[in-house]
Every structure is written in C-alpha cells, then in structure tokens.
C-alpha cells in the first residue's frame, strides 16, 4: 500500500500522522504502550502457566492455556480499536468534516476503557491483599473493595461497549 498504512503496526503512525486531534495523538501513544504492556503480561503469564504445567497432559490445562489467550484478546482488542478505527476512517476519507470530532470521542472512549481496566483491577484485589484506603478516594476504593470479585468484569465490558457505541453514533 502506497499510503503508509500497513496493518496493525502501520495503523499507529498512520493514525498519529493523519489526525488533527491532540487528544487522539496522545491516545495513540498511551494506547500503543498500554497494548504492548498488556500483551507482554499476557505472554509472560502464559509462559509461566505452561512452565508450571508442562508435565501434565492435555485436558483442562489446555483449556486454561487457551483461556489466557482469549482473556488477552478481550483486554487488548478494545485498547487497539480506537486507533484502528481512526486509521481506517482516515484511509477511506470518510466524513472529513467530522473527522476531528470522531477522533476526539474515540480517544475519550479509549481512555475510559484504560481507566475501566484499573477499576476492574481494584475490584478484583483479593481480600488478603486489600489495604485500608486513606485519602480523598478512600470511600470510592472501599466501595470497590466491597463489590464481589466477579463485578470486576463489568467496567471493562461497559467501556468496551462504549467504544463501539461511540464509533456507531459519532461516525454518522
């Protein structure tokens, strides 16, 4: 392709160069770094799991290894989605007059997804590792600690849906 857009890795410099939104440019950098760090954590966790279970044959361990990959995709894909959607939109030249607004809203949705991952981590902290919260955010952290650990899935799921919703609503 002559325009410099070459799939996943080419989408980042392409989107960074084509957008007029500083907010989105910052998301390209932060989102790219977050996706790389998340991917590294998932790969390392998978390597550790394989190392700990190398002597065991198939069965449910094979399923748990595949589960790590699926969870990784559910974490990394929404981080990458705003960059890929903006790069695709600019490459196709769709609605140039609303491109900056589209880019800004997707950056906001992307940042909200990253924040939702943090909220999900706080909710999922095991009881034995929870410390007594202090400071301005103590009531919020206490409330998050009080939620069942399964509730940690809700903030990222809602924020991932928000990315899709922003794409559908703002692109019209």
* Discrete helix count: 6
Question: What integer is the average pLDDT?
Answer: 89
Tell me what portion of residues adopts beta-strand conformation: under 5%
Helix content: over 70%
Judging from the principal axes of the Cα atoms, what is the shape?
Answer: globular
Query: How would you spell out the order of helices and strands?
Result: HHHHHH
Distance between the amino and carboxyl termini? 27 Å
Biggest sheet features: none
- Low-confidence blocks of residues: none
Quickly count the domains.
Answer: 1
Counted beta strands: 0
If you had to describe this structure to a student in words, what would you say it looks like?
This is DUF8056 domain-containing protein. Residues 1-170 form the DUF8056 domain. The chain crosses the membrane at residues 27-54, 66-85, 105-125, 145-166. It holds the Pfam family DUF8056. The protein is mainly α. The chain has one domain (7-170). The protein is 74% helix and 0% strand. Helix 1 (7-18) runs parallel beside helix 3 (60-92).
From the structure above, extract its key features:
172 residues, 6 helices, globular, transmembrane, DUF8056 domain-containing protein
Short recap of the structure:
The protein is mainly α and 172 residues long. It has six helices and no strands.
Please give the structural blueprint:
Layout: H1 7-18, H2 22-52, H3 60-92, H4 99-123, H5 138-146, H6 154-170
Helix pairs in contact: 1-2, 1-3, 2-3, 2-4, 3-4, 3-6, 4-6
